[in-house]
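stage 2 :: seqdesign
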């Protein structure tokens, strides 16, 4: 698993993607020919202060590290945090991310 870091990769996903709306997050998924899984995380200022935004990012990263064996290959996902993610518990975040990975 790798993280998306370049603006070019984010733009590529924003232009052609499948969108999935959840309670805490919005997911943009794109299939790719490369045999790897990449994830990008975006949590804007509207969600909360820096401490809250970083906590959400850390939880998302922890979920992907724990579940690295079940990650789909040939896919890039951008996760965009919503305001509801600030009040979500760790279990709620895990459940939502798990549902999205199952819905390939």
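stage 2 :: out
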């Amino acid at each position: 698993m790798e993280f998306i870091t370049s603006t070019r990769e984010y733009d590529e996903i924003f232009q052609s993607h499948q969108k999935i709306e959840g309670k805490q997050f919005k997911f943009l998924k794109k299939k790719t020919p490369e045999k790897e899984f990449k994830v990008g995380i975006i949590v804007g200022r509207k969600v909360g202060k820096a401490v809250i935004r970083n906590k959400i990012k850390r939880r998302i990263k922890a979920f992907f590290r724990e579940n690295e064996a079940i990650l789909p290959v040939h896919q890039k996902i951008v996760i965009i945090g919503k305001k509801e993610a600030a009040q979500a518990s760790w279990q709620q975040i895990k459940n939502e991310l798990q549902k999205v990975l199952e819905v390939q």
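stage 3 :: structure notes
- The chain is about 40% helix and 25% strand.
- The two ends are 16 Å apart (CA to CA).
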